[in-house]
Amino acid sequence: MRRCGNWPLHGEEKGRSRTRETKAKEIQITKRTEKRKETKGEIPEAKGRRRRNRQDRQNRQDQVREALLSILFPRCCPVCGEIVVPRGEKICPDCWKTLSFVSGPRCLRCGKELETQDGEYCLGCQRHKRSFVFGGALLNYNEVSARSMAKIKYQNRREYLDYYSEEMVRRLGRLMSRMEAEVFVPVPVHPARRRQRGYNQAEELAMRLGKLTGLPVCADALVRTKKTAPQKELSAGERLKNLEKAFAARPEFLPPGTKGVILVDDIYTTGSTVEACARVLRGAGVKRVYFLSICIGGDR
Ligand SMILES: [Zn+2]
Ligand SMILES: [Zn+2]
């Protein structure tokens, strides 16, 4: 009886404790749901924080790897070719001073240094039609930069591009942020030349720029169908026509919906190569073409 009489009371007690249990479970479930919501991206701050942490961790790992690599394989300077001192740097401080960075008033179209303060465009951009929106380069093409570019191209000194790509992002970052483009496209070399050399220096540069900026690289969007020997006897117009026939666009390799492209090359001299590539890409439906190069010739 007592036991029986006690049942309801016990039951109530049990009921109350069950209610407490249920409540605790509910709280747990709510917490879990919130956690799930966080991971699903419904709380953007938390997701951003996690991404930043991940990025910081990645950066620290990259720094450690860089430091270890610089001990195992010391870096060579892109100017003198000697091992860079201090370790960890990518160029000798003295050699850095010998580089001629593009500065002062520049052509609004190609980014060449202008010889005079007046005028907005260089002679080349005034005289010739440009199918690209605008572009820019890091260095003036002179003896020092020409020697460095030749080593990259013919002596497999691709490591020099690490320094040049970082400096390009640092110095041309503002210009790049104005480029409404979704992808980097390197200026291609003929497949036979690529086989012989083992790489395309423009593609190597584009890959590094892509890694630094997060923009994808599409090396298949342009192909070189003909080897073009330097044809000095031809006029600028004829040369351009010949060059145009040497490139073909393969827009099917571009990410769907690509409207803007940044062409990447090592040297911009008269601009005829970039112009030919820009025309071919525009002909294939790309709306905007920009360019970036390491070196650029003088205003002639
Ligand atoms: Zn040096
Ligand atoms: Zn120009």
Q: What can you see in these coordinates?
A:
- The protein is α/β, with parallel strands linked by helices.
- The protein contains 10 helices and 6 strands; from the N terminus they run H-H-H-H-E-H-H-E-H-H-E-H-E-E-H-E.
- The chain has helices spanning about 1-40, 45-70, 95-100, 125, 145-155, 160-175, 190-195, 200-215, 235-245, 270-285, and strands spanning about 135-140, 185, 220-225, 245-250, 260-270, 290-295.
- The N and C termini lie far apart (about 110 Å).
- The structure holds zinc ion (ZN) (2 copies).
- One zinc ion binds near residues 107, 110, 112, 122 and 125.
Secondary structure tally, helices: 10
Distance between the termini: 112 Å
- SS class: alpha/beta
The share of residues in helices is: 40-55%
Number of strands: 6
Computed over alpha carbons, the radius of gyration is 29 Å
Oligomeric state: single chain
Strand content: 5-15%
Give the cofactors and ligands: zinc ion
* Average residue pLDDT: 85
Shape by Cα distribution: globular
Order of helices and strands: HHHHEHHEHHEHEEHE
How many domains, as an integer? Answer: 2
Task: Give, in spatial order, the strands making up the sheet with the most strands.
Answer: 1-6-5-2
